[in-house]
Amino acid sequence: MQKKTRAFLKWAGGKYSLVEEITKRLRSANSEAETLVEPFVGAGSVFLNSDFKRYVLNDINADLINLYKEIQRAPDEFIADAKKLFVEQNNCADAYYEYRQQFNECVDVYERAILFLYMNRHGYNGLCRYNLKGIFNVPFGKYKKPYFPENELYHFAEKAQNATFTCLSYEQVFKQLPKNSVIYCDPPYVPLSKTASFTSYAKGGFNLDDQAQLANLAERAAFDNNKPVLISNHETVWTRKIYSEAQLDVIQVKRTISPKGNGRNKVNELMALYSAQPSRNY
Q1: Is residue 147 domain-shared with residue 80, that is, in the same domain?
Q2: Residue 1 domain flag
Q3: Cα–Cα nearest to 115, from 129, 128, 130, 100
């Protein structure tokens, strides 16, 4: 089996541990698909560990997509410049908050991309969070020696040559799905409790109406246009209801949002596959 590749970003809800489960479902739904579409690409673990000719990778977080485009455009330059920030004197609260302020005031896309990577690796628990005014507000992470993901960046840059990056709403992505494609959706998850949700990583958020609308779009794409869609989410009574037209499977996964290892309990992950093909059991 090919060695798995880690994303260069730390990311809440990253799918590194589930890529085998996800890719086998996508391939079973359409083994001949040439393009993988991800309306919520996040850190890109599925992209990095799948084998399609082309990728359409979207996220509503403009800073994330901007970062990916800069790495795709000039990987050597970007990696060399980003590495300069990963020095001991920048691994302290004063430096971090100074760079965070610089990021929030900055309009230059290249500079924002470098600072975004710096904050991702030096900020608290790899969170990406903005307030209602769109100000990045993740606190300092207090890590001994933040890791600079040079090899992971180069691998991403190489694979990104076959990708198109977009910053659109999920609804816009579904309006322009390419021919012979499969779609994997990893939306912000339905909270397991009233206190489980954390502030959105993109201004505007993703509410329960969006969850239901995404399920509707998946049904139409799969059943009307023969473009299979796989959605992952928490297993709840409500998600089972909105995904009632899909083939449902449950997988147990460890939570990764808790900063304490012993607080990362296993939760049930729901895999909802919308496909015009006959159902298969896993």
Answers
A1: yes
A2: no
A3: 100
